[in-house]
Design a protein that fits this description.
Blueprint: H1 5-10, H2 21-33, E1 36-42, E2 53-58, H3 70-82, E3 87-90, H4 107-114, E4 123-125, H5 129-133, H6 146-154, E5 158-159, E6 163-169, E7 172-178, E8 185-188, E9 191-193, H7 198-203, E10 211-214, E11 230-233, H8 249-255, E12 262-266, E13 269-273, E14 291-297
Parallel strand pairs: 1-14, 2-3, 3-4, 4-5, 7-10, 10-11, 11-13
Antiparallel strand pairs: 2-14, 6-7, 8-9, 12-13
């Protein structure tokens, strides 16, 4: 479904909403014009307190016009660079997530913007379910993520799908691991199969250095071993629509009330779920503005 800009504006953001001003806000203001930085500072179990690591988390870009243009992706990268992170992690879903668009942003376009990202330890990424399911928007044929991988590699992003790499910061080692999507393949309507391999990924970790794990979907958290200091995820968009007095019933039904957004602690295991940047199903956001996450692990060596 491609819309002219005039038709898009006349439709109130491609959707007819009976709630007037609130609908206009959800369809226009929050998804298109709001962007913040959410800060977390923690020392999760297994992470050396004296190893400070600053990480920028960028999730769920869902590139498309007019909501997430190449220029907006570049602005997000500039914001991330201004935080001076040691490491940048891209948590998947670069493809647009809905058909209510005025134009398609192709992988080489958003990839050219991501090439602006800077971090001394590098930029690493995983793929999300939308990168597997379809092309740049849902009605375009997919290729199991190959065009997404090509764009990421061209942007000098190292992809970790069921893989792990040992990094060193301030002379101290840690592991960065990444999972492939847990719902990558459609089996039938509403039924999906993952291509993730958590046990195989963990077997690639060969010493006792701390582990930071990227997973697009948070559903895997119940299976993540205590060996992992922190799991970082996207996918939920923080509920995307958080209505006053109601919350996010749709997201809660899909993911459970405690696996939607923020810092989750269960049985001593820690997870951060980002609200991400774009939207899926419909170009709406309310009560959960787009965000770049600034994560600081440990404390400063000079503290």
């Amino acid at each position: 479904m491609f819309l002219t800009r005039r038709a898009f504006l006349k439709s109130g953001g491609a959707l007819s909403l009976s709630v007037g001003g609130a609908g206009s806000y959800a369809a226009g203001v929050e998804p298109m014009f709001m962007l913040g930085v959410t800060d977390y500072h923690m020392t999760p179990p297994g992470w050396p307190p004296d190893l400070e690591l600053k990480v920028s988390l960028i999730a769920d870009i869902h590139a498309c016009e007019p909501f997430m243009s190449q220029e907006r992706v570049r602005y997000i990268c500039d914001l991330s660079n201004s935080l001076n992170p040691d490491l940048v992690l891209l948590l998947g879903d670069y493809n647009g997530g809905h058909n209510y668009v005025t134009g398609v942003v192709m992988p080489d376009q958003w990839g050219a913007a991501l090439a602006d990202l800077r971090a001394p330890l590098g930029v690493y990424g995983i793929l999300g379910n939308h990168d597997w399911w379809h092309g740049p928007i849902p009605r375009m044929r997919g290729d199991d993520g190959e065009s997404v991988r090509k764009a990421l590699r061209a942007a000098h992003v190292r992809i970790l799908e069921n893989d792990a790499i040992r990094l060193t910061h301030h002379g101290r080692p840690f592991w960065l691991a990444g999972l492939a999507s847990q719902i990558a393949l459609r089996v039938s309507r509403g039924v999906f199969r993952g291509v993730d391999d958590l046990p195989g990924t963990m077997r690639k970790i060969t010493d006792d250095a701390p582990v930071l794990l990227m997973a697009h979907e948070p559903m895997v958290f119940d299976s993540v071993p205590e060996r992992v200091s922190l799991t970082v995820c996207g996918h939920t968009h923080g509920g995307q629509m958080n209505l006053p007095f109601i919350g996010s019933p749709f997201a809660e039904g899909r993911f459970g009330p405690n696996h939607i957004y923020g810092h989750v602690v269960e049985e001593g295991r820690n997870m951060i779920i980002s609200a991400g940047l774009g939207a899926s199903i419909a170009p709406l956001r309310m009560g959960r503005p787009p965000e770049v996450v600034q994560l600081t692990l440990g404390r400063s060596l000079s503290a």
